[in-house]
Design a protein that fits this description.
209 residues, 8 helices
């Protein structure tokens, strides 16, 4: 409703004083909940992928920030840098994305990856995972005539669901019904933040195209 009122105010102001051009930007910002303005021209596939990769990285930052705040609320004392880039001594301690990368690399090279590569591989995989999903989001959202950052919410839910569908097959996750509702809800909410952050970043970088 507020965006609609601003729209009519802007139209009336434009008729009375053409120098007042700041309201359209206000309307556009307030209109996030609407379908949004059409793009000036369609995104090229390359631009959509690049913007999506950047959006995926931004979404990863948002998700990690959410998890870090939860960590601090439960008594954690490490600073953000120490928490984000915590040491990984070996593959037994590596997070699931790192273990996935290990299996892929070992399958491709037919060589065992030493423990000393666990931290670097896990860190790179963590950020690459979000960026790859962001590229897929960019391809999908880039084809929408009226971009909307809220498209990131179902996207985040899809990323969350894909992990519980595929990783149990690799033996890295348990079947979804073996997790508590609290664990699933916390993981889902973090992924929704990821999706909303990615969707908002993509909207901001592509809306003037």
């Amino acid at each position: 409703m507020a965006s609609g009122i601003l729209y009519f105010l802007e139209a009336d102001t434009r008729q009375r004083d053409p120098r007042h051009r700041q309201l359209p930007e206000v309307v556009e910002v307030m209109g996030i909940m609407r379908t949004g303005r059409p793009r000036r021209r369609p995104l090229t596939p390359v631009a959509a992928v690049i913007d999506g990769i950047v959006a995926g990285a931004a979404g990863t930052v948002c998700m990690d920030a959410t998890r870090y705040l939860r960590y601090r609320r439960t008594g954690g004392t490490e600073n953000p840098k120490e928490w984000e880039f915590a040491p990984v001594e070996g593959w037994d301690e590596a997070p699931d994305p790192g273990k996935v990368a290990k299996r892929v690399l070992e399958g491709f090279t037919q060589r065992e990856i030493p423990d000393r590569w666990a931290w670097l591989t896990s860190t790179v995989m963590h950020w690459s995972y979000g960026s790859v999903w962001g590229a897929l989001y960019g391809i999908a959202a880039g084809s929408v005539r009226r971009p909307n950052p809220l498209l990131g919410i179902p996207f985040g839910a899809a990323v969350w669901a894909s992990a519980y569908l595929t990783l149990p097959q690799a033996g890295l996750y348990q079947p979804i019904w073996k997790y508590s509702p609290k664990t699933l809800a916390e993981d889902l909410s973090a992924h929704l933040v990821f999706g909303l952050g990615a969707g908002t970043c993509f909207w901001l970088t592509s809306r003037h195209c």
